[in-house]
Specification:
Blueprint lengths: L10 H19 L5 H14 L5 H6 L5 H8 L18 H18 L7 H15 L2 E2 L4 E2 L4 E2 L5 E3 L4 E2 L4 E2 L4 E4 L4 E2 L4 E2 L2 E3 L7 E3 L1 E4 L4 E2 L4 E2 L4 E2 L4 E2 L4 E2 L7 E4 L4 E6 L18 E2 L2
Parallel strand pairs: 1-4, 2-5, 3-6, 4-7, 5-8, 6-9, 7-12, 8-13, 9-14, 12-15, 13-16, 14-17, 16-18, 19-20
Antiparallel strand pairs: 10-11, 18-19
Length: 279
């Protein structure tokens, strides 16, 4: 067993977290909700407490200029994000998810942002309204960054650890029971070598049960097979077959997992010697 269940020691506080998440969930289910206002009010409450009104705070000229500037950041309409500058950005679709992405980002950098228990609940809730598809029991840790969000699909029981970059400028499909470790990067776009302004977007797929380990990089258009594994700091420049373990720059197959040694799945790429690895 690689992990264990942990909950806050104070049951009353646990219920407090659940009520806050439930309040957000109910508001997000309302198709008429103004998501910019929802984000603004949630961040105002986190930083200034229940009953604080954004309009009163921002219009209070007795407050220091720097504080008023900080308050202005609670409203996603007052900020721009990098993805908005991309030529392939769909303003209508991005406009729907931007407030939730901003709430996600700002929560991660707020005092409660280090709280794993609360953070997992909030990001799971927001992902269901941001991603193209989000499965059950998805765990997303702090400081995970996406480009658009609406071109990203994630299956059941998948874990995405800290500081992962999911560049869904094209499309990223992540299967079920996948583990993506800290500081990994998965891309779905590339710039033309001769013309940097020419962007080519592709579909990048991470198969069920695959593992992308620490600082691994999956380049645009690649497929990581079922139950495959990318070793630490590996860079995938060609498809990874099911069950294969690839390491290095560029990543090459060095072993085949036990399940891959059964039947036709044991076939290895030319020039490699499949060897079973104990898990």
């Amino acid at each position: 067993m690689a992990s264990r269940l942990v909950s806050p020691a104070n049951e009353e506080i646990t219920h407090l977290y659940e009520r806050w998440i439930e309040n957000l969930r109910v508001r997000l289910q309302n198709p008429k909700i103004d998501r910019d206002v929802l984000c603004r009010d949630a961040l105002t409450e986190i930083h200034y407490g229940e009953g604080a009104r954004y309009a009163d705070l921002i219009e209070d000229r007795s407050r220091p200029l720097g504080e008023r500037m900080m308050i202005a950041q609670f409203d996603p309409r007052n900020v721009t994000l990098e993805a908005e500058y991309y030529a392939e950005c769909d303003p209508v679709r991005y406009g729907r998810v931007k407030p939730l992405l901003w709430l996600w980002i700002q929560f991660d950098h707020s005092p409660p942002g280090q709280n794993v228990h609360l953070g997992l609940m909030l990001r799971r809730l927001l992902a269901k309204h941001v991603f193209r598809q989000c499965g059950k029991n998805v765990r997303i840790f702090r400081d995970v960054e996406v480009s658009f969000g609406y071109n990203l699909s994630v299956g059941d029981n998948t874990t995405i650890h800290r500081c992962v970059l999911l560049d869904d400028r094209g499309e990223i499909v992540i299967g079920s029971n996948v583990s993506i470790s800290d500081y990994a990067s998965i891309y779905s776009h590339v710039h033309d070598i001769e013309d940097i302004e020419r962007v080519i977007c592709s579909r990048t797929v991470i198969g069920d049960g695959a593992r992308i380990t620490y600082h691994g990089v999956v380049l645009s258009g690649m497929t990581i097979g079922r139950n495959a594994m990318l070793g630490t700091m590996g860079v995938v420049t060609r498809p990874v077959p099911d069950h294969h373990i690839c390491v290095g720059i560029p990543a090459k197959s060095v072993r085949v997992k036990r399940d891959g040694m059964r039947g036709k799945d044991a076939a290895a790429p030319p020039g490699t010697i499949p060897r079973v690895v104990m898990e």
